Fold:
Amino acid sequence: MSTNKAAPTSIKPGPSNFEEVHPSMPVCGKPRRVRDRIFSTACDLFYQHGIRQVGVDAIATAAGTNKMSFYRSFASKDELVAEYLDKKSNEFWIWWDGIVSAHEGDARRQIEALFDAFVTSVCFADSRGCALANASVELAEAEHPGRQVAFNQKKELQRRFRALAAKAGARKADELGDGLMLLMEGGYLTQRTFGQGSGPLQSAALTARVLIDAYT
Structure:
C-alpha cells in the first residue's frame, strides 16, 4: 500500500545518488514533458529524503504541477516508486558494464576495478548510499512492486559477483562472490554512517584484493 503523505515544504529536489552525480554516470536532464518532470523530481526527492517521507503533494509541488497531473501520469505512487528503482538499477548496470568492459578476459582485474571505482563513486557528500538497498528497508510489504525491483537487482548483483569469482579461478566461487557482494553492500552503509572520506569504505578496494587472494 502506498502512502501519499506530503513531505515538509522545505524539501527541494537535489542531486540524487552517485550514479547521477559522478561524472562517469548518466545525468538526469531537465525534461519538458509533465510526466518526465514529475519523474525526474521524484527521483531526486526519493533519493535525498526517502520514499516514505515524500508524498504525492510534495512531488507535484516541487515539479511545478498538481496532483491531478500526477495521477494522469502515474496510476499510483507505488508505480512511480517501481519506475524510479528500475531507473536506478539500470544506471548501476551501465556503471558496472562500463568498468568491466575495460578489462575483458581478466576477471580478477574486473573485480579490482569495480571496487576501485566504487570507493571513488560513493565518496560524495550528497551520497545516500544504494537506492535499491534503501528501498528494501523502507518497503516492508513483500508485494510492493518497488521491493520486487530491488530484490531482482540484488539477485543479479549476487549472480554477477559469483560469475566473476568463478572466472577468476576461485576455489569456492559462490562464497567469494557472496563475500564481495557483502563488501559492496556494507560499503554503502558505512558511508552513510561515517560520512564522506572516512570509515571502513576507504579499505574496501584493499579488502576485495585480500578476499580474492584468499580464494585463489
